Amino acid sequence: MKLERYQAKTKRVNRRRVYEINGHQYPGVTTILSATKPADARKALYEWRQRIGKEAAQAISNKASSAGTRLHKQVAAFLRGETVEIPADVGGYWESLLPILNAVDEPLLVEGAVWHDAGYVGFPDAVMVYEGQVCVCDWKTAMKPKKLEWIGDYCLQVAAYAQAIEQVYAETGIEVAGALIAIALDQAPAQTFWLARGQIEEHWQCFQARLEEYYILRDRVG
User: Fold this and answer.
1) Each residue of 158-187: b (16+ CB within 10 Å) or e?
2) Could you write out the DSSP letters of every residue in 114-167?
3) Which of the ends of the chain has fewer CB neighbours closer than 10 A, N or C?
4) Rounded Cα gap, residues 200 and 118, in angstroms
């Protein structure tokens, strides 16, 4: 079963980036999570930048972002059955993810837009059958291994995607059984974090609270 791939048009409304799709304009999931990041997470990021220096922190962020963007492009090509060309400086990340990619039973959707009438748009990296289960997947890159308690927003992100997928493709009867967060590391096997259906539901409740907070903040600023 292949899912129809939708695209969203990017627009600027009141200096904010929104996505226009299906006759509506919505903020993106990552925009929502960034705007409502908890104070302790903001503090931790600030302290890290102060500790290593702003220029060094920016260089690390830029390097990680560049590697992540290029890796995503090649992962998408692999899942679509297209030619893959791996730049030398992301070769380690690619080898880290390859065992997971080879375990994908069937890609159903690669990098398509999904939306939810709760008021958001998301761009899941993949919807696929993995180890016999339909799941939403998000590929990440990291300099060092993560702990589950550090990736709370990643969990909210995939939970929001899962709900939107089921709404957009309701006529297909699709049910998302789980969510896979795969974090590629340069010199180690990728980390995988699996969220079962019950965990997705729990994170969905938390995402809805962040979504409500986002709209309150937006309306307050005007």
Assistant:
1) bbbbbbbbbebbeeeebebbbbbbbbbbbe
2) EEETTTEEE--SEEEEETTEEEEEEEEEESS---GGG-HHHHHHHHHHHHHHHH
3) C
4) 16
Angle at 38 between CA 219 and CA 182, to 5 degrees: 110
How many residues can be counted in the chain? 222
Q: Tokens in use for 36?
A: 């409502």
Position 99 scores a pLDDT of 97
- CB pairs under 8 A, 24+ apart, for 41-49? 41/153
pLDDT in tens, 53-73: 877 767 667 667 788 899 999
Strands (E), the chain: 9-13, 16-21, 24-26, 104-110, 114-116, 120-122, 126-130, 133-142, 178-185, 188-196
Angle at the Cα of 33 from the Cα atoms of 126 and 112, rounded to 5 degrees: 25
Tell me the per-residue pLDDT of 173-206, one tens digit each, with 9 for 90 and over: 999 999 999 999 999 999 999 999 999 999 999 9
Question: Could you report the per-residue pLDDT of 7-52, keeping only the tens digit for each?
Answer: 999 999 888 899 999 888 999 999 999 999 987 777 777 676 788 8
d(CA 200, CA 58): 32
Residues 6+ apart with CB under 8 A from 131: 103, 105
- pTM of structure: 0.92
